[in-house]
Hints:
Keywords: Elongation factor, Protein biosynthesis. This protein is α+β, with helices and mostly antiparallel strands. About 40% of the residues lie in helices and about 15% in strands.
Amino acid sequence: MSGTLYAADLTRGKVVKALVKHYKLDYKIEAPNDEFKKQFPLGLIPALVEKDGLKITECIAIAVRLARQANPALLGANDDEFDQILSWASFANSDIMKHSVATWAGIIGKVPYNKKSSDQGLQDLFTCCDIVEQRLYDYTFLVGESLTLADLIVAQSFWRVFCFVMGQEERKKYPNIYKWFNTIINTDILKSEFTDFEYIEKKKEFVPPKKEKKAPAPKAEQPKKEAAPKAAAEEPVSEEPKKPKHPLELLGKPKQAIDEWKRVYSNEETRETAIPWFWKNMYDPEEWSLWKVDYKYNDELTLTFMSNNLVGGFFNRLSASTKYMFGCMVVYGVNNDNGITGFFLVRGQEHEPAFDVAPDWESYAFTKLEPTEENKKFINNMLAWDEPVEVDGKKIEIADGKVFK
Ligand SMILES: N[C@@H](CCC(=O)N[C@@H](CS)C(=O)NCC(=O)O)C(=O)O
């Protein structure tokens, strides 16, 4: 059989890619592209297309299909073993994966950190580990007496657990999992997928980003009516809790409405008309500030379309501040080597009141930009996306991007 296997360096792609590579199966391994998007509307990988058009999704189904061609012994010696293999694989791909991601995704900044769900994830993950540890106390492999697909898929699901959760302490708690995992990832079949893997010393913990000192807001930007607080105090106390106002509402109306800029940017030619309009009519340093916004965890990014989805999610969570800012963010680079950067125009002189409406705002680093020629060049490119981004002196092409408006 031959065809295309869409996969990337993500957990669920490891075993299927390893099987194709180790057994030299006749499948082309490709990162998701436009053709993939057309054929698989859910956009999930791995996915396989045979030359005759047959499509198979779900990593377990694909792995079984590849193992059947590569080495049927990986599917067990009989039906009982095959069913146990499916049972372990399914347990790994749903329960272990779910609790593993719940434990570390907030810690490494992939989603907003929530202590309760991370702690619960860890507790559930350890329950899963207890089950695997118990089996491996008595046996070398998960099913039968030799290596099967169960070992490969369960080890795959433990990849991120060992990257983020299993430090020295935790490995001592699960010595049989540790020994078995180390054996499986070093088998000839799987080792090509773990060449960069390193054990961690300590479990990763959530580190809240340091709060920046607030600069006092300039006088001109204080609420205009001095009498307002007094008048409010004289109002009868309402039983209903008041809907909190957005803190930036206190700055009053700016001279230039941001909505007009948003219309100009959407409707006019960017370089010719919108950019000159922005600098002439919109940006007033007394009322607005400019910010470079960089994702802090570029090392964790994989596929460019997923990085762009991350930006989309961030923008959705910022919607309460739409009236007070405008921004463009781009994904630069290629699959498995990309980063996120961008620029925002923000009402007032601080970024925090505008951004902390999104629970994941602290996954981004904010640098205030003065309107120097160099910074204007960066901002203009974030508006136009027509030149590569410069990162550490290297020019890197823009792959995708989103506008917050
Ligand atoms: N049930 C599917 C899930 C596949 C899946 O969630 N794949 C992830 C990578 S591990 C993915 O494609 N994520 C892309 C996204 O969420 O945008 C399977 O087991 O194969």
